[in-house]
Amino acid sequence: MTGRGGTSAVLRGGGWSRCCVSSRRCPAGSCRDRHRGNLPSRRCAACRIWRSRLRCRQLHGQRVASRIRSNLVKQLVGCWTVMTSLESVPPKYAQLVQTLQRRIESGDYPPGTLLPSENQLIQEFSVSRPTVVAALRVLREQGWIESQQGKGRFVRGRPAMASIEQKRPGQAYLTKPETATAGEMVGVGVVAAPNRIAVLLDVQPQSKVFVRRRLIVREGEPTELVALWLPLELSEGTDLTSGEPLRQGFREHLHARKGVRFDHIVEQITARIPTAAEAEQLAMPKNTPLLAVFGAVREASGRPLAVVEVLLPADRHELEDAYPVA
Length: 326
Description:
The chain is an alpha+beta fold. The protein is built from eleven helices and twelve strands. It has helices at 31-34, 53-87, 92-106, 118-125, 129-142, 162-165, 169-175, 195-201, 232-235, 250-258, 276-281; strands at residues 16-18, 25-27, 42-43, 50-51, 145-148, 152-155, 183-192, 208-218, 221-231, 264-272, 290-298, 304-313. The chain has a six-stranded antiparallel beta sheet with strand order 7-8-9-12-11-10, sandwiched between helices. It has a two-stranded antiparallel ribbon with strand order 1-2. Helix 3 packs across helix 5. The radius of gyration is 36 Å and the shape is elongated. The N and C termini lie far apart (103 Å).
């Protein structure tokens, strides 16, 4: 029999000893020599039985490997969860905008009161000055606050009728020169018209149309994708086919080159999941919806002239409208 020290006890009769590993009989005195690498025996942490190390490795090797695989899977799942949560976090300036808007709506910052200074916001939210400046600019453009020279920024409250005076997304890009907004061209050329664009331009699906795409950047962050869709005959002989930013608005440029007059815009707003390319360009999570604004430009007779498409990440933008009650 085998003792706790791993030695072989000589059995009476025949000079044989019980093997410490295989429970077979070995010649007396040779068990230690045969299984020298397995000795001494110890109490197994898994089965709590005194046996050789090699024997326990053989018995519990599969269990240990399974435990290692399980721990590895848990680590990978944890890393994936952290990466997913980081991807879904909006830019810091957008988080600050949302926080200040909530405080204004809740009454923490009543209308007419002085908004905390830039230094106070930097210290409270532990962000950089460019982040605070970008957030305050957005609030000012949306009508939540107003700036007074030498006094500071005052709270106006939640915008109501002020939004009527502001240009809608499609109209703004028709009248504003491209050089006035930071961004980069991401595509200029002739493509097959998607179904929605074909309907808005009143052309056959998959017909050849001209498109000019530009990525808008604010404070170093991509914020929206803007595309101008035109029938081929309106794009010919214009600077729209160039890859350089226009120094005129689309409306002014097309009127000067083609003699067309924009009369009104029919606007449609939809929501959808971005494509992989759109998510990459806008630096947004793939599972966050896009707000797609389509502005169909028409002349007085109703004939379609162009379509302005604006793609906005839904977690960074809010579309608001106001109208008088008759």
